[in-house]
Amino acid sequence: MSNESGTVVVAGMQYGDEAKGRLVHALADDPNVSMIVRFQGGANAGHTIFMGEKKIVLHLVPSGIPYPDKICVIGNGMVIDPERLINEIKDLQKNDLLIDKKQLRISNLAHITLPSHRERDGKNEKALGQKKIGTTGRGIGPTYEDKIGRRGLRMQDLLCDAKELHSKLEGLPEYSWLNRKQTVSDLMEYGRILKPFICDTGHLINLAIRQNKGIVFEGAQGALLDIDHGTYPFVTSSNTTAGAACTGSGIGPTAIKKVLGVCKAYTTRVGSGPFPTELFDDTGLFLREKGLEKGATTGRDRRCGWLDLVALKYAVRVNGVTKLAITKLDVLSGLKKIQVCKSYKTLKQTNDGKHKFLQIRPDDPFTEFDTKKVTPHYQEFEGWTENLRHIRKFEDLPKAAREYLDYIEKHLEVPITLVSVGPEQNEYFTR
């Protein structure tokens, strides 16, 4: 995948689960790439990669970890559950991946997720009732709350003595009932184990940039779950768009050369929130079953629907996407008809108090209307029945599949440079 290498951000264009981890893993295979940096989110992400017959689900460790000659960095923009991270490292070692400080580096400035954050997360969701967000329950939101509230603990605090750690816990909302002695003991043990990995990763990344080394910045979740630019309040607690690669890793914006946007050939979403193209019929069930649409982190079934070009064009814009990767095109094989949402329709009140339908197209403003109250307007395509998994050239795709991709590319005004046609690591082609 050398034509895609360089200093590049891999960003999700939908609601997450676009197979970003697989793309990062493939990009990391390029000999020009020396570093993979994860820059936001926490253990609420689930990136699935395959090593031969082995399926590996990563939550905190970057997707380049199978390559022993690459440096994987957990950036300062992430929130880290140290217990989960240690267990993840142990699981990787069981899969014959020797992980040491030469291969994995952890930012000293990344914030720590505590058991109390997970408990607070569950209570918050329960209190919302039917208005719940649908979080993973991993304590991500409360950790970011404490970070913004300037009372959080950072990875460098794991290296403090017991007295200083006790003092730092005083700012937490749960301080009055927290088992402080046990918490301090646990944190000091985590610090003992993780100390070799903790460093100033911003310095490390910028040094690699000055040496013109290839770096892949790996995002989690997707653009439509961004805390600022997503379908608020049904979003994650961090910035998921490409710009967060700078603040989440400690580099300047001029360091980013390319943004590779990743989206499925259809749309999925886990949890609550608007989803204009969601399908509740047999086609939706077909996509879920054939696409194996089950969350890697939560195990929940994903909601499935047609591709949404209005939302996708918006995601391309806020990420500054230079190239696009389409995944799971093979899942559409077998459908007689395929639909693409090319615009929305929504009721708008006129000056005389009446209502009329307003059409919203991909180039129109996206955040000025309520996506819960729109009706998708579709463009229909002929389907195809051929198995795509053996195809390695765009020209060898069925005519209907080529027309489908050409339509997407034309409307998004971004070149599709990579297409995934199967679940195996080598089942893709570049264009």
- Choose one word for the global shape: globular
The SS-based structural class is alpha/beta
Largest sheet: 10 strands, mixed
- Count of discrete domains: 3
- Discrete helix count: 11
Report the CATH architecture of the largest domain.
3-Layer(aba) Sandwich
Poorly predicted regions? none
Mean pLDDT: 92
Oligomer: single chain
Strand content: 15-25%
Give the beta-strand count.
Answer: 20
Distance between the termini: 11 Å
Task: Using the coordinates shown, work out and report the CATH topology of the largest domain.
Answer: Adenylosuccinate Synthetase, Chain A, domain 1
Any idea of the CATH class of the largest domain? Alpha Beta
Computed over alpha carbons, the radius of gyration is 22 Å
Instruction: Name the CATH superfamily assignment of the largest domain.
Output: Adenylosuccinate Synthetase, subunit A, domain 1
Helix content: 25-40%
Trace the largest sheet across and list its strands.
Answer: 9-7-5-2-10-1-11-15-19-20
